[in-house]
Every structure is written in structure tokens, then in C-alpha cells.
UniProtKB/TrEMBL annotation, chains A, B:
The gene is lacI. Keywords: DNA-binding, Transcription, Transcription regulation. It comes from Streptomyces flaveus. One of its GO terms (molecular function) is DNA-binding transcription factor activity. Gene3D superfamilies: 3.40.50.2300, lambda repressor-like DNA-binding domains. The keyword rRNA-binding does not apply. Residues 1-55 form the HTH lacI-type domain. Transmembrane segments: none annotated. SUPFAM superfamilies: lambda repressor-like DNA-binding domains, Periplasmic binding protein-like I. PROSITE patterns: HTH_CROC1, HTH_LACI_1, HTH_LACI_2. The keyword Transcription regulation applies. This is LacI family transcriptional regulator. InterPro entries: Cro/C1-type_HTH (IPR001387), HTH_LacI (IPR000843), LacI/GalR-like_sensor (IPR046335), Lambda_DNA-bd_dom_sf (IPR010982), Peripla_BP_I (IPR028082).
DNA sequence: ACCGATTGTCGAACCGGTTCGCGCAAAGTG
DNA sequence: CACTTTGCGCGAACCGGTTCGACAATCGGT
């Protein structure tokens, strides 16, 4: 079922059908209705590939995310879902591309073969060569996160520095003097993951300002690593009474480690960090945390990208978000011990 | 940068370049190398839309999943990631489509505009009209889950009936006589979600066989619903000493409810169910559960679909999986109270 | 030296849309 | 009534690939 068939049945030329579909030229009421009726009867929809070829746009955006090798966190997954829905609302489809795999074939295909009009990048690194690849083929992109030089880029990011600082201040205000920081895995920190770096930076800075004793740890993205990490924390410094974490996947393990060490949360030990709200509420006690606004970020990223696609020369824009800490049940005053 | 440009620079015709790329006709060593050199220098990759138009295949598969309105569970998200990776390994891209939204525009586009060669359906219902839509446009599909008449379909599914039965037997073997079943939300059950129906069926059957007292509940897909559900369970029948759940998202809430009711797991109360392994390990105590093999299922679904695409007339195949229950720490002998 | 088979390359048509310029007929103007 | 304007629809060209039939050059055999 193609446009030629529609034209034939309606007794008009292919171009006229096209103009009815696009509305880019006026068509008389009579022929329009005649054509429309045929279209409706046959349930005709124009072929996406042909249309993409003809007008140079695929109406598809690429979502570049890290491979599952290192488990997905709930946060990443929330992003994916929300980006897809925001895009669907604007009549864009979303093509998923796991990047960071062996040869990155999928990512290269996405770009080189022009399967997409633009891309949204997740899990940003401070120096992110994916931008270079995108620039070199002239594909617009929007990042979820900031590189080291965010001034003139398109992105929507979380102010991990401020968020980590806020967590330290919150704990210091409660009287905690010895605080640990549980970061993402070391391999990601070394790779330059921006959240890991900026969070660490904020934590370190605020800890120094408040004069609290601090140690920082890297921790694998899973429960058992979290448990092991917590054991190390208490082994290294038994006087630790609180921790801040960016590592959502390890959270369950951290809690378990605390329970096994006989530390009651929040009476003996406070836990806080940066976590998607929905996941913060699944643990007991519910986590006091800066809730990652995944839905808003997904929507904003799509909005920015679509704007950029529609106005190729528009000046760069971005959104830096710093959601407040939601007080729940995992933090409390430092024990008077 | 198109194939004509390559041809011009190499001093050959477009068709010869095409044959070098596809290898569908022999090309002499000399010209092949000449062409290949130009291609490499310019980093040329053929345009995906043009190729799709010409040979009628997009090399893309659609992944149809439910919208996030009712939160994603970890299991669904694991599927998505694993499907994308399995597809990438076979040089297929994955287009995401949230179905079940207002007018399902995205799903319709996927099919009607032939953006994909085939589709993988998640969150199956016993009567799933998405199959009819797919059939009507002649797109092959593979389901993750089974309809009411799975005999001659293509799918990879979990034997929720057997799994729920196994959970009941496990608990009954431990001496539990009063067991609750926590299902997915009522709205999903009414919509005919197959996991909810088959799980319920298996639970009910096994409970009857073993002569245990049972009640079944529907529960929202979030922690607070889980907590509320547990309160109802203990209110309805304080003698309940165990539960089986299919509702991963509610798990944290169920645990919290138990803690607040003063029931210690597993000493006073046993919990088990069907959950993705990774999530079963984040709760404390770690959940004894039938681990959903998300990775294997994602891979199998892609394998089946690709096979179906390559051999359109191949007879239907499917895989019914029934992973064993992984013994962890959330179940124990019924109290002698 | 001639003929048939083989090998390698080319040109043209096609996939299914979009878009531009043109021609024709009806309507508007003096 | 001749002359421009306007409104509609058509045909052709194009987007960037793939594929088929034709043809020239080379090869082996008698």
C-alpha cells in the first residue's frame, strides 16, 4: 500500500495525495475529501523510510546509554522510560544505543548511517568523546549531565556538587562529625563520570568547610559490594556515624551491612544521598535524600533536543537542577556517645 | 557523503560501489581496493533510510512496553536493557514504543509506517489485541509472556503457574498453614495480565492441594501500597505466617509493613515470590525467590525474532522457562506458635 | 585464428515518498 | 471581450541506496 496506489484509486496524481497529507499546498475540498476517504478506507500510513529519505529527517532520536554490564540503576532506567514518553508526546521515536561496548558498533551505526536526527547522551563523563563523534558527523545532541566545560553546551544536569554539599551540611547540622562518602565504582570514577567526580568534589569541600572527619570510598553497583563497603567503612573508622551515597544500587547492601554491624538507622547511624525518589521509598527506613527528578529531566532533555532540531542556529541552553533534600526517616541527630 | 560521491572519487559506477559493500557480486581486486580506500578515507557509511527503502528491511526491531504511568519494575527494565544488547549483538537497533497510552499513536506509527521489521511485546495480556494489530499489518512478533492460546505462537515466557506453585510448596514444606498472595494491581489483573492470572491460578491450585488457608490480594506497584497491603493481610488474618508475591515494586513496602507489625523475617514470617535476582538481593533479609532470568529471556526473545525474520515460514517456536527457587534468607520454618 | 564461456563493470530502473515548476481553467479587471 | 490574476492539479526530478540485464574484455579450447 503506497502513495501511488492511493493516487490511482482516488483518480489523482501522487503529488496531490502528498499535499493532502502534508497540507503544504492548498487542495480543493472536493479532491481532498475524495483522497481522504480512500486513505481512511485503506488505513494508509506513509512509509517512514521513504519519507525519511526524501526529507532528510527520521523523526527519531537516539538515546545513548551505558551497557548493562555494570548493572543499571533505577535512576538510569527511570530516565529511559521518561525520555521515551516525552519523545512520544512530540511524535518522535526513540532508538536505544548501548555505548561503551567493545567496538561501539551500535553507536557508530546510529551516527554514521543517520538513523536519528539527534541524540540524548546519558552517563556523561567530564571529557566525553561521544560529543566529538557527534560533532564530526554534525548530529545535534543533548546531554543528561555536564562535561568539564558546560558553558556553551546543551544539557540538563543535576548539580551533584551542591547536592553532596547539602547532604554533608544536613548531617553536620545534626551533629555528625565523622562521615563517609560512598561513590560509584572506581572504574567509573577513573573513566571520568561526572556525577562521581562532582559529587566527590562537593562532599570533600563541604566536609572541609564543616571540619568533619571524612573518608571516601568507591563501591560496586550492587548490593553485596555495598555490604562489603560498609564493613570497610566501620573497620577503617568505627566512629563513623553517617554516610552520603550516590550509589543507588549499593544502598540495599549498605543498609544490610549496618544492620549486621548492629547499627540502627537512624538512631546510631544516618544515611543520605542522591537517589531517585521512588527507590528512596522502597528501603526501610525510607531514605532522606535529594530526589533525582528523573521525569522532569527526561522531559527537559527531549524538549531541548527538539528545540535544537527545529532551530539549528539557536543559542545553547541548559538546565541545572538541584532538588531539595526530602526528609524521610534515615537521618537523625548524632548519638551523644 | 553518498554512494555517488564515492563512485565519482573512485572513478567507478555507483553499482560497483554497492557490490563492494554488499559482496553480492564479485569485484576485481584492483577496483575493490581502490574503492575501499576511498571509503576508508572518507569514513563513508551508507544511509540507513535509503537502504531500508531499497531493500524493504529496516534492521530495526520494536520493543513495545507499557508506559511508566504505573511505575516500571526492575524486571521490566532489565528486559529492556538485555533486549537492546542482544539485538545490538546481531546488528539490529531497537526502537522503543510505549503502548497503552491514550491513543497509542507511537505503537500505530511503529507498525503502520513500517519503522521496524518486527516487534517484541512485553507485559502480555491473556487476550492481547496488539497481536491482531501486528498480524493485520503483517509484522512478525515475539512475545515475552504467553497469551491464553500459546500453542502456535512465538514467545518466551515464564511459567508463572509452576513458579507460584513451587513457592506454595516451599512454604508448605516449611510448615506454613496460612499464606497470603500479593498480586499485581487490580487494574492489571482486570486487564488480563498473564503473569498476574497464571500466578494467581498456580497459587490457588497449590494452596488447595496442600490444604493451606489462603487469601489473595492485589497491590499497587509501589512501596506504600505494599505496606498498606501487608497491614490488610495481618488485619484480615493475623495467623498468616507467609506470603508469596509477584509484585516486585511492592516488596520493600511489604518488608516495611512486617517490620512495623513486629514480625521478624524469617523467624515469624516467611516471604517468597518471583523477582529478578538482582533485586531479590537488595532487600534484607535477601529474598528467597524464583529468580527471573531477564538476561536469558531478552536474548531468547531476540533470537526468536531474528530467526523468524530470516525464515518467514519457519514453524512457531517458544521457550517456557521455570527457574528454580533460589534459597536465600527470607523463608524459614513456621513458628511453633 | 575463431568461437563460446567467463569475468568484471556499467547504466537504468526501482523502492516510496517530497517538492518544484508549469499549464490549464475559472475568476477578476478595465 | 481581451488580458491578467488566481487556484488546482499534474509530471518530472530527486533523496541514496539495490539489483538486474547488457556488454566489453579476457580466457581457454580446438
Amino acid at each position: 500500500m503506497n502513495i501511488g496506489e492511493i493516487a490511482k484509486r482516488a483518480g489523482v496524481s501522487r503529488s496531490t495525495v502528498s499535499y493532502v497529507l502534508s497540507g503544504k499546498r492548498p487542495v480543493s475540498d472536493g479532491t481532498r475529501q475524495k483522497i481522504q476517504r480512500v486513505i481512511d478506507e485503506l488505513g494508509y500510513q506513509p512509509n517512514a523510510s521513504a519519507r525519511a529519505l526524501a526529507n532528510g529527517r527520521t523523526n527519531t532520536i537516539g538515546l545513548v546509554f551505558p551497557p548493562a554490564g555494570n548493572h543499571y540503576t533505577g535512576m538510569q532506567l527511570d530516565f529511559i522510560g521518561n525520555v521515551v514518553e516525552a519523545a512520544a508526546a512530540k511524535d518522535y521515536d526513540v532508538l536505544l544505543s548501548p555505548s561503551g561496548m567493545d567496538s561501539d558498533r551500535s553507536f557508530q551505526r546510529l551516527l554514521g548511517e543517520r538513523r536519528v536526527d539527534g541524540a540524548i547522551l546519558m552517563e556523561l563523563r567530564l571529557q566525553d568523546d561521544r560529543f566529538d563523534h557527534l560533532d564530526s558527523v554534525g548530529l545535534p545532541a543533548v546531554a543528561i549531565g555536564r562535561t568539564a566545560h558546560p558553558e556553551n553546551g546543551w544539557w540538563v544536569g543535576l548539580d551533584h556538587t551542591a547536592l553532596a554539599e547539602a547532604c554533608v551540611h544536613h548531617l553536620a547540622d545534626l551533629g555528625h562529625r565523622t562521615i563517609a562518602f560512598v561513590n560509584r565504582p572506581e572504574q567509573l570514577l577513573r573513566a571520568g563520570y561526572e556525577s562521581a567526580h562532582r559529587g566527590l568534589e562537593g562532599f570533600t569541600k563541604a566536609a572541609a568547610e564543616r571540619g568533619v572527619t571524612s573518608r571516601t570510598y568507591c563501591c560496586g553497583d550492587d548490593a553485596s559490594s555495598g555490604q562489603a563497603c560498609l564493613e570497610r567503612i566501620l573497620h577503617d573508622e568505627p566512629a563513623t556515624t553517617a554516610l552520603v551515597t550516590l550509589n543507588e544500587a549499593a544502598l540495599g547492601g549498605l543498609y544490610r551491612g549496618l544492620a549486621q554491624a548492629g547499627r540502627h538507622v537512624p538512631r546510631d547511624f544516618s544515611v543520605t544521598g542522591v537517589v531517585a525518589g521512588r527507590w528512596a521509598e522502597t528501603v526501610t527506613p525510607q531514605l532522606t535524600a535529594a530526589d533525582v527528578p528523573a521525569e522532569q529531566m527526561g522531559r527537559l532533555a527531549v524538549d531541548l533536543l527538539v528545540e535544537r532540531l527545529d532551530h539549528p542556529e539557536a543559542p545553547a541552553r541548559h538546565h541545572l537542577l538541584a532538588p531539595p533534600i526530602s526528609l524521610r526517616a534515615s537521618t537523625g541527630p548524632a548519638g551523644t556517645g
